[in-house]
Give the backbone structure.
Amino acid sequence: MTVLATAPAPPASCRDLPWESARERAHAAPALLPAQHVPLARAAGLALADVLRTPQPMPGFDTAAMDGYAVGPGAGPWRVRGMVRAGGAWTGGPLGTGEAVEISTGAAVPVGARAVIPLERVERSGPLVRGPSPAEGKHIRRAGEDAPAGSPLAPAGTRIGPALLGLAAASGHDTLPVRPRPWVRILVTGDELTHTGRPGPGRVRDALGPLLPPLIQVMGGETTDVHHVPDQPTGSLATAVHTRLSSDADVTVVTGSTSVGATDQLRMLLADADARWVVDAVACRPGHPQLLAQLPNGHWVLGLPGNPYAALVAAHTLLAGDIRTAPGRTRLIPVSWDGVTAHPVGGHRPAFLHGAALADALAAVPPDWQPGQPVPLLLLAG
């Protein structure tokens, strides 16, 4: 006997949403996790919680951009007063007319120097050095030339990668304000699934259990565990969700069980729990039956279709960053990308991951697209 959910159905305002609207809702709905300050060595892959500013000018002092001679006023020849190397400090006072110091790339330029003449452009004879009269400031990086003190270097929300870590260190930061990774648990549903070896007759090998944890990590989350939930008996999914709410997970991702079939339990679970619906199906192909709702205790539940490619599309729709496209039923197609042009790779039926495995990106193709028109791309990790 089928038991019908007694709670109200999801509101029409969140049903069958245009793809771009679903993405906007999904990313506007969750509250941000509290910011933390972490050492640079632990910040890679996280997102900035605040604007990154440089506490000092960059560079922090007038810096030689070439090995050569820092020369004072006058046309030369210049009398060499000494040398200054990177990491050292010139203590001989300002350079006067006709004076110079030998200098290394990266060294602090003495006060009074008007330019640096590269080594290959000069001739030295004893204490005198001769060369072409340089333009004012030639081969000198002035203090604050790249960024004055207090300048913003990266906005809040920026994903922290190797270059940003190097920039933060160069500007004098030891820690960064970050948003911690949300913890995500995965519930894979389906009596037909097998998890090792070749599937037998009537069985299907689980593709989403291996696929989702690294995808979640790339998107900024951390998987707590992957748990397999049978379709029978009815209520097994509700039991799995509610008995595991005491875990540290912020989000539960359920694969399969998102449609309206006899064994699809997720909608019933959300209705009975009086969940707040954000997305109830998306007008895209594949991946239409995808769901996002919040339980009364604040826990988020994300429902993905059971077909692997459809689930991948849905994950990028509701978990990835915002982009905008035309309204309507959007198709997401795996493509190769040469930096200028995207080319479909094929193999993208809802249950087939071949195209996605070979692709560089998913192209979000609106229904009114014409050949030659640009389309948004969702870059695929790996």
Notes: The first strand starts at residue 15 and ends at 18.
